[in-house]
Amino acid sequence: MAKAVQTQIMMTIGAVAPDELDAKSLPEALMGKVEGYAREYEKRGWTGLAQQLRKLTSTPAGESGWRVHQQAAEIVSSFA
């Protein structure tokens, strides 16, 4: 079930899901998608919006693992 959910969400955001369930793939794909939006916003001159998106995806030095998952949840919540 978890693999199916991961695959469906990743396909929805245009990412390729790994063959096996991987706890890092979805958060990394989601953060990459948001970073892509930030780059597009900057191209359009929307620097304030780009900065807001980058805040959602920035990980302070020394933090990883759980923090990445927490950030992914925050990103999803901000668009809900």
Overview of this protein structure:
The protein starts with a helix and ends with a helix. It contains four helices and no strands. Helix 2 (25-43) packs across helix 4 (66-79). The chain has helices at 2-12, 25-43, 47-57, 66-79. Helix content is 69%, strand content 0%. The chain is mainly alpha-helical. The protein has one domain. The radius of gyration is 13 Å and the shape is globular.
According to DSSP, the number of beta strands is 0
Beta content comes to under 5%
**Shape from CA axes?**
globular
The chain-level mean pLDDT equals: 83
Structural class: mainly alpha
Biggest sheet layout: none
Radius of gyration: 13 Å
Helix content: 55-70%
Uncertain segments = none
How many domain modules?
Answer: 1
**How many separate helices?**
4
Span from first to last CA? 23 Å
Order of helices and strands: HHHH
In short:
By secondary structure, this protein is mostly helical.
SSE topology:
Blueprint: H1 2-12, H2 25-43, H3 47-57, H4 66-79
Helix pairs in contact: 2-3, 2-4
Keywords:
69% helix; 4 helices; mainly alpha
